Amino acid sequence: MGVFSRFLDIVNANINSLLDKAEDPEKMLKLMMQEMEDTLIELKSTCADSIASKNSLDKKIQETEESVQRWIDRARLALDKGKEDLAREALVMKKQTVETLRELKQELTDKEDLVSTCRENIRQVEEKLAGVRTKFDTLRSEGARRTRTGSQTRTAAEREDAYENRFSQMDEHLEKMGGTYQNYSLDKEFQNLEQMDEIEAELASLKKEQSKGSKS
């Protein structure tokens, strides 16, 4: 069963109803806590991976934005040197880079949504786990049947420490983290023509801009 399927089972579970049907409520609560802890580990690992991907995308976006500006500067340089064809090629590259930037930003938005969902899932499981642990402690304090005795029995404080230790490293990790190819077609031919019109318009704008600069 996948981690998100288990997550749904956990948050949708009616704990009281399950306990009413259980032959050994204490044992059932222990199994629930174990399942929730295991699910939390997987959820936090998934969240950490998503945060790492998001951070990587942030860096790529910054680099791509710099690349866009670099192609604009190169187009201007080519015009200064009287190389209009080279300036045109630079603007074509700039347009392609802008499209890549758009795709990266959309991917970043999707990744941010995923991270937000992961954090909310973690919160819900932690809340559910806290409720189960409270029931477990209440059950034991009322003298419910125990499946472990003597040294095998852990106090509520010991379980709390074990739980915190189990997830502390994962939480620290989370804090630290905080072009498709298309078939050539007639449609593609017209897209290229449309793009060249845009390139020519931008080239003309650059030439006009530089002409004004040389007169001032």
Describe the fold and architecture.
This protein is mainly α and 216 residues long. It has one domain. It is 84% helix and 0% strand. Helix 3 packs parallel to helix 5, helix 3 packs across helix 6 and helix 4 crosses helix 6. The chain is rod-shaped, with a radius of gyration of 30 Å. About 7% of the residues have low confidence.
Helical stretch count? 6
Multimerization status: single chain
**Total strand count, please?**
0
Chain-averaged pLDDT: 78
Largest sheet: none
Calculate the terminal CA-CA distance, rounded to whole Å. 71 Å
- The helix content, as a percent range, equals over 70%
Q: List the helices and strands in order.
A: HHHHHH
User: What is the beta-strand fraction?
Assistant: under 5%
Low-confidence parts: 144-152, 179-184
Structural class given helices, strands, pairing?
mainly alpha
Write down the overall geometry: rod-shaped
Q: Please compute the radius of gyration using only Cα atoms.
A: 30 Å
Quickly count the domains: 1
Task: Explain the layout of strands and helices.
Layout lengths: L2 H10 L2 H7 L3 H56 L3 H58 L14 H21 L9 H30 L1
Helix pairs in contact: 1-3, 3-4, 3-5, 3-6, 4-6
